[in-house]
Amino acid sequence: MSRRMIVFDTIYNPEQTLLLKTARENGCKTVSGVEMFVKQAELQFKFFTREEAPGDLMRDTLRKTIGAAKYRSNK
Question: Model's pTM, two decimal places?
Fold first, then answer.
């Protein structure tokens, strides 16, 4: 791996994969599957509604849905 590389993983659950961990340890820039998922959803939302998508809400909702421990509700 080269420090100039951007490593993109399409897996969003778990968000932090071994590929991304290894890439970061080697100084690469990384993009998680959550970002891919949300950016795709934002584009679809804008295409169909002609409005800007609530990206932060989408990202938070996805993380809660896939069960990332720090995002789980205590309910």
Answer: 0.74
